[in-house]
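[Automated response] Your request has been received and processed.

Submitted sequence:
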Amino acid sequence: MSAAVKSPGRMTVDQFLNWDPGGGGRWQLLDGEPRAMAPANRTHGALQGELGRLIGNHLRASASPCSVVVTPGVVPRILAAHNVRVPDLAVTCSGYQREESTLADPVLIVEILSLSNQADTWANVWAYTSIPSVREILILRSDAIAAELLRRGSDGLWPEHTVAITDGDLVLESISFRVPLREAYATTRLAAR
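Generated structure:
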């Protein structure tokens, strides 16, 4: 049994990115407080892998300058000096020449919603809306074949409500991506239903 990690108190993004909590694991910085993230369950991990593969294959096939990144750190503009959120997937169209600790200019962010982390996931989603480059935020459910999508309008504003997707195609305009929603769930137990 490993010892509990003592929180170092309120941190800045720079302190967080240079912090070594020991023992591994994934962490987010929420309003200056480091918060451990539980490992993903099997359905969550399968969704993350399958959708990441589908998006990555699409981007390569279309010779897009964009790339998909698994569990990147992103910095919302709200309390930017004290927040590093970690979505399940993100797509950026910015190149890079040196290593980055956080993902620059994501255009698409994907979160997978588990019953045990709904409040944290939705808090992250609303924080992502403050990032100027983000055009779409996709929330996949891990208990049913269903998703919710937020898409920034041409006026730069976000809608008041998400669009529910329960059948048909999943369309992500930010990366010109279209796939049957069920394809994202192909390697999960939900595909057999």
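Summary generated for your ticket: The beta strands are 26-30, 33-37, 67-70, 89-92, 106-113, 136-141, 147-151, 163-165, 169-172, 177-180. Residues 5 and 20 are 10 Å apart (CA to CA).
If you did not submit this request, please reply to this message.
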